[in-house]
Amino acid sequence: MNINYNDLDVMIDEDQIQEKIAELAHKISIDFHNEEVYFLCVLKGGLIFCSDLMRAIKLPLEVGFVSVSSYGDKTVSSGEVIYKSPIPEEIKGKNIIVVEDIVDSGTTLRALLTKIRDEYSPRALKVASLLFKPSRNIHPIDIHYLGFKIEDKFVVGYGLDYAQKYRNVPFIGVLKKY
Ligand code: IMP
Ligand code: MG
Fold it and tell me: Which of the residues 13, 104, 142, 161 is marked catalytic?
């Protein structure tokens, strides 16, 4: 069974993504020159962005993973998140760059950043996110390394899913039926 992309409109193509990644990698390499960085990849969505971005960076770099999901704003107002896998202890005291696919309401990242700041005494704490939806944002987050601001459409591909599918699509697309 082959997949086709007929149900998607391309929003950001592969070349645009790679161009932006080169830009962000350059910025990170300048900001942290002569230092080591720790990429904390937020699974599952951050997987593809993280793997491309880290390969474009010419610094000593470690990578680790945390699997987080948000309760959803409608059911829980506390902004809590569920940790499906914990924050790795090894991040303590390091120059941490949290790598996310998208900042939407900001609930997930706000909770994660607060926990890291409170419990892991980072030397530096920065955020890299491929996408940001300003119109849906509730918790303002400083995104130090941002790929693209997008309008309020549900997007998939390049790590982002719809019901766990489409993560392997190589571009950012909009579901036509959504
Ligand atoms: P937030 O906590 O509301 O900022 O939402 C963050 C998470 O919701 C992201 O890490 C994504 O996993 C998911 N998400 C938000 N918008 C989209 C979208 O347009 N497509 C796919 N996933 C999304
Ligand atoms: Mg995510």
Answer: 104
143 touches 108 (CB < 8 A): no
> Which distant-in-sequence residues (6+ apart) come within 8 Å of 89 by Cβ?
none
> pTM to 2 decimals?
0.94
Residue 143 corresponds to which tokens in the numbers above?
A: 């995104």
Q: Is 104 a catalytic residue?
A: yes
Distance separating alpha carbons of residues 159 and 176, to the nearest angstrom: 18
As to burial, measured by CB atoms within 10 angstroms (0-12 exposed, 13-18 middle, 19+ buried), residue 31 is middle
Is any ligand 1 atom within 6 A of the Cβ of residue 102? yes
Mean pLDDT per segment of 10 residues, for the chain of length 178 residues?
86 98 98 97 97 97 94 53 95 98 94 97 98 92 97 96 95 89
Phi-psi sector, 16: left (phi>0), alpha (psi -120 to 50), beta = alpha
- C-alpha to C-alpha distance for 106 and 134, rounded to whole angstroms: 10
